[in-house]
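Model it.
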Amino acid sequence: MSAQKNPTLHMIKLIVGCTSPEMLRDWVAVERHKGTAYVRTRTMPKRAAEIVQGGGSIYRVINGLIMCRQPIIGFDSYTRDDGHPGTLILVSDEVIPTQPRPMRPFQGWRYFKPEDAPPDLGQGAADLPDDGISSLPASLRNQLSELGLL
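Modeled.
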């Protein structure tokens, strides 16, 4: 009997001040820690090793929609500006667009199961071409998604 592999565990986190995956790509090029892109957070996930070993991603909520993901490559500790410890989620430079999906606001980050994650654009039969969705204004993508049209 073969051992069943555990499904990949992901994370999800809101982005404040970012209005599009394109803007996130610009941020990724600038915000670096030892040469690697990162996301700041307060607490180290207890399941960090599981996320990295399983090839997990961090899904990003922009303007109320899950719009993209970045593969997680590791975690590191740092000291926040207030002197308290914090965690850097080290991510790939790759920002992968996903089918937009509404997401209510929440604080911090959450674990995100694979079955809850939207597919990457281009991964499903009902997908519009990537440039068809990404060229729409975020507010229109949000409205179409809330209506179940995306």
